[in-house]
Design goal:
Blueprint: H1 14-23, H2 27-34, H3 38-54, H4 62-68, H5 72-80, H6 93-98, H7 114-121, H8 124-132, H9 161-168, H10 172-181, H11 196-201, H12 206-211, H13 227-233, H14 237-244, H15 262-268, H16 272-279, H17 296-301, H18 309-318, H19 333-338, H20 349-357, H21 374-378, H22 386-401, E1 423-424, H23 427-434, H24 438-447, E2 455-457, E3 465-467, H25 469-477, H26 490-502, H27 516-522, H28 531-539, H29 547-563, H30 566-586, H31 601-617
Antiparallel strand pairs: 1-2, 2-3
Length: 618
C-alpha cells in the first residue's frame, strides 16, 4: 500500500491558512498557529494583531502587554494595525467619575493606560514613542496606586500619568520631564495644575516648571501658599533664588488664611540661608504680622527646636524686629517658645535661651488661662539628653535671676483633661514628675521652691482629689498608666526623690488622702518588689515624717495582714516589719515595736530585704 505524504504548514496555500485562522475563535489558538512555522508567522501575524486590536477586550490588549514587558516592537506593530495608544477599559469611565469621586477608597480592579505602565516601570523609549505618536497625557487611572489627594477632592482621584511619574516611577524625573514637554500640566482632573508640588517630588524639574509659569505668585495651593512660601518651608534655597530672579517677584506675598509672609515661613522652618537672602532684599518688612498679630520673632520662637534658632533670632533683632510683640491673645514670643504646640512636641528651649539673651521681657505675659507660668511650660516632658535639656536649665536659672515668680500653682479649667493636664501643681512638681529632671528640680529647690504644696490629681475627671506633693510625684514616677506608659527605673527616679526628701518633702497625707508613705508601701504588692520602699526608708529623716504617721501605717499593715491570706498577707507583714525597723532607727522608743506573729514570714522578709539592698546598691 502506498504511503501518504505529510504536507507541512510551509506548503499550505495562503488562502487555506487564512481560512484556518478565520475558524479559530480563540486568540490564544491563533497565536499558537502563528508561532507554528515561519510561513504561518509571515502570513498570519498581521491577522493576529488586527484581531487583538479590533476584537480583544482592552485588558488583553497587546499594547498594554508590551508596555508592561518592555516590548517596543510589539507596540509599533499594534499601532501599525490601528491600535489605540490611549487604550483602557471604556466601560470603566462611569466607575471613574462616580465611584472614585467618593471620599472613601473602594476596591476596584486596576485600570490604566500603556503610558501609565511605561512611566511607572521607567521604560523611557516606550514612553517617548507613545508621546510622539499622540498618547494622551491626561488619561485617568484607577487603582494603580493607593495615593490620596491632600489639597483637593475627590480624596482618591483618577490619577494622570504625571502623578505616576512624579511619585512612583523609576527615574521619574526623566519621565516627568517628557510628559511636561508634551503638555502634561495636571496630576489629576481636579488638581490646580502644574505647581510647586511637581518640584517637591522632583526638584530637578524646578527650572522647567519655572519657565512654564508653575512658580508664579498666583499659582497657590489649596491652603493659599504661593510657590515662594512653599520653597521657604521646604528649605529649597535654589528654588527661592530662582523665583527671586524675577524682578516682578513679590517678597511680601501672603498666605490666604494665615496671612503669613515668606519671611514667616522661612524662620518657622529654620531656613537660615533663605532668611538671610530675604532680609537682604530691598523692601522687606521685618515688623509685619500675620492674621494673629504674630511677627517673625514669634514665628521663630514656635519653630523647630534646633541649633539655628539663635542665629535666626539674632538676624531678626539686628534688623529691628520687636522681640516682645504679643499676639492677639497677649502671648509673647518668649512664652510661645516655652510652650509646645502639640502634645508629643516639646518646648523650644534654645529659642527661650536666645530670646532671654536678647532681652526678652518675661513679665509681659506670665500665665495662660490655666494658670501655667512660663516655668510650667518649660518643665513639661522632653527628651532627656543634653542638647535638649541644657538650654532649659540655663533658661530656668535666668528666669529665676530676673525675679519671676516660680512657685505658683496651676489651675486648669474644668474642660481640659489628658496627659498635659493630669495634675495642677507648682513648677517644682512639673520638674520632678513631668520633666523628671533632677537638675531642674535642684535648681528650683535651691531657689526656695516649696516641696510640700498640695497637688490636685486630675487623672480621673469624675474623682479629682488633692494629695500631698510627694504622693503626686510617686504617682508619676512609680505608677504605670496607659497614657504615661512605663514608669522610669529607680536609677532615674531615685535622684529626684532623694532631693525632695533632703529638702523636707513630707511623706504624710493631705486631707486624709493616701500619703506618700502609704503609696510606696502599697505599690510593690503585686510584684513583691520592695526596692522603692527601701529607697524611701533609707533616705527619709525626721523632717519628712512623724512617728505618729509611721505607727499608723504600721498598724494599718498589721491589720491587713490579719484579715488577708497568702501573698497579700505576706506583703503586709513584710511592709510592717520594714517600717518597724525604720521606726526603731529614726524614732527609738517613740513607736510600738511589737513583733509580727508569723514564723515563716521572716524568711520571706529576709529575702526581700536582701533584694532591696542589692537594688539600692546598684
Amino acid at each position: 500500500m502506498e504511503a501518504k505524504a505529510d504536507i507541512g504548514l510551509d506548503k499550505v496555500p495562503v488562502e487555506i491558512l487564512l481560512k484556518i485562522a478565520g475558524c479559530l475563535n480563540s486568540e490564544k489558538d491563533l497565536g499558537a498557529l502563528v508561532r507554528s512555522s515561519r510561513r504561518a508567522y509571515i502570513t498570519l501575524n498581521g491577522v493576529l494583531y488586527e484581531r487583538n486590536v479590533l476584537e480583544a477586550h482592552p485588558k488583553h490588549s497587546c499594547v498594554l502587554w508590551a508596555a508592561r514587558n518592555d516590548s517596543l516592537n510589539t507596540i509599533k506593530l499594534a499601532y501599525a494595525h490601528g491600535a489605540d495608544l490611549n487604550l483602557y477599559d471604556p466601560r470603566s469611565e462611569l466607575r471613574i467619575t462616580i465611584v472614585w469621586s467618593k471620599r472613601k477608597k473602594v476596591d476596584a480592579r486596576k485600570i490604566f493606560s500603556p503610558l501609565h505602565v511605561s512611566v511607572m516601570k521607567g521604560y523611557h523609549h516606550i514612553t517617548r514613542y507613545l508621546l510622539d505618536h499622540g498618547a494622551s497625557v491626561d488619561i485617568p487611572s484607577v487603582g494603580l496606586c493607593s495615593c490620596h489627594a491632600m489639597n483637593f477632592r475627590p480624596l482618591f482621584p483618577a490619577w494622570y500619568p504625571l502623578h505616576t511619574a512624579l511619585v512612583h516611577a523609576k527615574e521619574g524625573e526623566i519621565s516627568s520631564e517628557m510628559l511636561i514637554r508634551h503638555g502634561a500640566r495636571k496630576v489629576a482632573a481636579e488638581c490646580p495644575g502644574l505647581s510647586f508640588q511637581t518640584i517637591s517630588y522632583q526638584p530637578s524639574l524646578a527650572r522647567l516648571v519655572a519657565d512654564l509659569g508653575g512658580l508664579r505668585e498666583g499659582n497657590v495651593d489649596a491652603l493659599g501658599y504661593a510657590p515662594l512660601h512653599l520653597a521657604s518651608l521646604d528649605g529649597m534655597d535654589d528654588v527661592v533664588e530662582m523665583i527671586l530672579e524675577n524682578p516682578e517677584a513679590n517678597i511680601q506675598v501672603r498666605t490666604l488664611e494665615e496671612n503669613s509672609t515668606v519671611l514667616h515661613c522661612a524662620v518657622r522652618q529654620r531656613n537660615l540661608n533663605t532668611t538671610k537672602r530675604l532680609l537682604a532684599m530691598p523692601g522687606i518688612e521685618v515688623e509685619t504680622t500675620d492674621a494673629h498679630n504674630r511677627n517673625v520673632v514669634y514665628a521663630a520662637a514656635r519653630g523647630y527646636n534646633d541649633g539655628t534658632v539663635a542665629s535666626i533670632i539674632s538676624l531678626l533683632v539686628e534688623r529691628g524686629a520687636n522681640i516682645n510683640l504679643p499676639d492677639e491673645a497677649g502671648v509673647t514670643p518668649l512664652y510661645a517658645a516655652a510652650s509646645r504646640i502639640l502634645i508629643y512636641d516639646y518646648p523650644n528651649f534654645k529659642a527661650v535661651e536666645a530670646l532671654l539673651a536678647h532681652g526678652a521681657d518675661p513679665f509681659l505675659y506670665q500665665k495662660n488661662e490655666h494658670g501655667w507660668t512660663i516655668f510650667h511650660q518649660l518643665l513639661r516632658q522632653a527628651p532627656n539628653f543634653g542638647e535638649v535639656v541644657n538650654p532649659r536649665r540655663a533658661a530656668l536659672k535666668r528666669l529665676i535671676e530676673l525675679g519671676l515668680e516660680f512657685d505658683t500653682c496651676s489651675c486648669t479649667t474644668q474642660d481640659e483633661y489628658g496627659l498635659d493636664f493630669d495634675s495642677d501643681a507648682t513648677p517644682l512638681f512639673f520638674a520632678a514628675a513631668q520633666a523628671q529632671d533632677p537638675e531642674c528640680t535642684e535648681i528650683l529647690l535651691k531657689a526656695g521652691a516649696r516641696p510640700n504644696t498640695p497637688v490636685l490629681n486630675r487623672e480621673n475627671p469624675e474623682h479629682m482629689q488633692t494629695q500631698s506633693f510627694l504622693a503626686g510625684v510617686f504617682r508619676h514616677l512609680w505608677w504605670e498608666t496607659e497614657s504615661r506608659g512605663f514608669a522610669p527605673p529607680l536609677s532615674q527616679a531615685g535622684e529626684i526623690v532623694a532631693l525632695l526628701l533632703k529638702y523636707g518633702a513630707s511623706l504624710e497625707d493631705v486631707e486624709g488622702v493616701e500619703s506618700a508613705l502609704e503609696f510606696v508601701c502599697r505599690c510593690p504588692e503585686e510584684r513583691m518588689d520592695y526596692s522603692h520602699l527601701d529607697f524611701v526608708l533609707e533616705h527619709a529623716t525626721r523632717e519628712n515624717v512623724s512617728p505618729e504617721h509611721v505607727e499608723g501605717v504600721i498598724n494599718g499593715n498589721r491589720l491587713e495582714s490579719s484579715i488577708t491570706k497568702g501573698a497579700i498577707a505576706d506583703h503586709h507583714r513584710i511592709v510592717a516589719h520594714k517600717l518597724i525597723k525604720f521606726g526603731e532607727r529614726l524614732f527609738p522608743g517613740e513607736i510600738s515595736t511589737e513583733e509580727i506573729i508569723v514564723d515563716d514570714v521572716m524568711d520571706v522578709d529576709a529575702d526581700a530585704d536582701s533584694d532591696g539592698d542589692d537594688t539600692c546598691t546598684e
